[in-house]
Amino acid sequence: YKAGLSHYMKLFSFYSKMPVEKKALEMVEKCLDKYFQHLCNDLEAFSAHAGRKTVKLEDLELLLRRQGLVTDHVSLHVLVERHLPLEYRQLLIPCAFSGNSVSPAQ
Amino acid sequence: MAVSTVVSKRIKRKAPRAFLRRTFKQKKPHLRLETACDLLIHLNCLLFVHRLAEESRTNACENKSRVIKKDHVLTAAKVILKKSRG
What we know:
The complex is a heterodimer of chains A (106) and B (86). By secondary structure, chain A is mainly α.
């Protein structure tokens, strides 16, 4: 579990563009831990509210909207394009392929 | 003062999808995740880390400190965790 969090800690020191103390990184780890806990609880609440047992893409979009990340000016697709690499973008944004098919299937 | 000065020029853009699924399963064993949902969770985490980093950087700049210290992260975390409630 800790090994997975280290990925995001690396990202933290990348985004901050400043040297970071070791203690501060430990603090970041704690924050991420708490953040994941909140995230899971929120997703559970959203899907339970819709009467589902599956977390769907709409739930995540609602979460991003509630967090003030997705707004009327910045849509989800913009955020995906800005932050995720191409192979993931293809999975998330509808895109027409040959043979009159659109992926991902709506 | 222990400072990790390693600012890696190249970082992995790949999402740790298996890790995200595993942690979600650990926390909520009775829920299922749809196919591409873990990617959006990754995006969410990415933006959270981004905001946290920016906030703690401004905190450090206000205190005229060249390195990010524990207190800067702590004050930033209070703000950002509050902002990222669902």
